[in-house]
Design brief:
By secondary structure, the protein is an all-alpha fold. It has 2 domains: about 45 residues; about 300 residues, no CATH class. About 65% of the residues lie in helices and about 0% in strands. It is built from 13 helices and no strands. The model has no long low-confidence stretch (mean pLDDT about 85).
Amino acid sequence: MITYHASSHMARLYKIAGYEKAFTMWRQVEVVSFHQCIEYLKTRLESATTFVQHVVLTFNVVIIYLGNVSNSSGHMHLSGCYELINKCYKLLPNVSKCTTLELIGLELFTFIIDWYKHTSLMAMISSQKRFSKVELPPSIPAIYKRLKISQNDVDFVSGNAKQLDYFITLMCQEMQLLESKGIYFSGLSCVYFAVTKHISKTLEDAQEKGLMLLQTLSRIQNQFTYKRLESNDFELDLTLKMCNLMSFQGLYLYLRFFFMGERDPLKIRSLLRDLLDSCYSMPYKSSCAILRHWVLYIAALIALIQHEAIIYEKIIEIFKLFQANGMEVHSICILEDVRQILEKQTYDDLLSSEYNVVIC
């Protein structure tokens, strides 16, 4: 598993750097080790009986998913995570009688749950083909510290206040209701909806949902107060603060533009620049800000539609900064495709299954 993930990372780095021979060599290692991982997991799953064994195997599937997030097979691995997590729930040990190993397993399992909930919600919003396996049993009791910043509500898994997780869940539910009326916002469907003509009744339905969601978002933001970390790492503190702020800004921009139909150039430009201001204010934006990948991706899409070329290029520069540090930023290729589609006005291409990938 380590060989697979390491080779995937190295192949990506050499591809970005333009070293074709080294990329090809590492890519071969990646393919071979991937098939070895799959065979290993199949064998172990057949013999696994304990909670800890299933948690470890589930974590391995998470690693495989992260290695394939840039293509449509990511949905398959995410569904596999869902099935395995439910198996783990059935084997949960009695908390009061846990062994040391089981306690460690519980801690890892809680991280997996948090990661899955965040990723599956992003899959519902950002991928072309709706991902529906989101519902899970309630989280297990927090008998230990979860993987988050203890002094405030901003965690490392989602990169935003936990109150926003509730909001994003609500937004996904409203998007499902709109889909029943033939209005699609997931994936690049939101761009298609924005650039093609649609009947007034359809727009009214979207605006009604959008207004309700904006009011809810505003209420959550007004009630939230960022608590500074009890740490000497002021840079990390500021990065998390801005990361959380970008979450609010990105969701507001998304709803104003796609749901409410706001097209005033000055207003949209102001919102886009505010978002960029927050990103540029992050001392650790080359690493931590990757959590705001979807927010920046949405901003780039809107910049393309609004012909804000300079803002679009600034966002691409940020993505390339992520990429230079070895991160998977598949949105760069998607955005370039969207740019060409908008130029050629071949809008039906926006609905291609090729863009059935998760941005998170």
